[in-house]
Design a protein that fits this description.
This protein is α+β, with helices and mostly antiparallel strands. The protein has helices at about 1-5, 10-20, 60-65, 80-95, 140-145, and strands spanning about 70-75, 100, 110-120, 120-130, 130-135, 150-155, 160-165, 165-170, 175-180, 185-190, 190-200.
């Protein structure tokens, strides 16, 4: 079953991937955040802000056909109540990070969009979200299990913090890597990034 392939992912994430791939034996009522329409990335713009209300997402024909073949999970802030959006974001990232200080100091309410695809044991996703603090404590590491490396390309925004015992600063255009066996604390501005989660043996 999908849970056996991805034992360390949040149950909602697993259920979303399973239903989008029409895997039998899974059921639920989270349709609002699990349709493929929610996983169509919005067009990129030169707007320095990455959060708030957006129009209908555009499509790119040559990539849509490939993406439609992959198990998919995603949600968009524009289709959810603010409290639902926060809860969905917290749950989606819970295996990787604890988050707080959501949207602190920003004029608009917190919002987050997520679109992820499963390619065998590798996950790739596009995220857009308001500023926040990301934490990965020893408790988070123990809770999550698994043995993965995260690679991220920041398209907009960035963060400052500490990964393991090393200070780190990432901005738009930077690529960073995190060892999920290590702790982490960063504070991000509003951002847009592409994330790749890879099992350590494949890295």
């Amino acid at each position: 079953g999908r849970a056996d392939l991805y034992p360390d992912l949040p149950r909602r994430f697993i259920k979303g991937l399973a239903r989008s791939a029409a895997i039998p034996g899974w059921s639920g009522t989270d349709a609002k955040i699990e349709s493929k329409a929610d996983c169509t990335p919005a067009p990129m713009t030169d707007d320095p802000t990455t959060t708030g209300q957006r129009g209908t997402a555009g499509t790119i024909d040559d990539t849509t056909s490939v993406a439609s073949l992959l198990p998919t999970f995603g949600f968009t802030a524009a289709r959810m109540a603010p409290d639902e959006n926060i809860a969905a974001w917290r749950e989606a990232v819970a295996t990787l990070f604890d988050v707080d200080e959501l949207g602190r100091g920003e004029p608009a309410p917190f919002s987050a969009d997520l679109c992820s695809y499963a390619m065998g044991p590798v996950l790739i996703g596009l995220s857009r979200a308001s500023g926040q603090r990301f934490l990965r404590t020893t408790a988070t590491v123990a809770r999550a299990g698994g043995d993965h490396i995260i690679l991220q390309l920041y398209l907009k925004g960035g963060f400052d913090g500490v990964a393991g015992e090393m200070p780190v600063r990432v901005g738009a255009g930077d690529i960073c890597a995190f060892d999920l066996a290590q702790t982490l604390e960063t504070r991000a501005t509003a951002f847009e990034n592409v994330t790749l989660v890879v099992p350590r043996p494949m890295f």
